[in-house]
Amino acid sequence: MSRPSTPCSNTCSRSSRRATATCWTVQFRMHPTIGDVVSRLFYDGKVRNGPGTDRRLLPPGEFDRPHRVLWIDVRGKDYTVGRTSRANDAEQQVILRLLGKLEADARRAGVHLEVAIIAAYRGQADRLQAEVLAGERAWPSLRVKAATVDAFQGREADVVLYSLVRTGDAERRFLADGRRFNVALSRARSLLVLVGDRTGARGTARLQQLLDMIPAENQIAADVFIPPRSTRSTTTRKP
Question: Among 42, 54, 127, 161, which has the highest number of CB atoms less than 10 A from its own CB?
Answer without folding.
Answer: 161
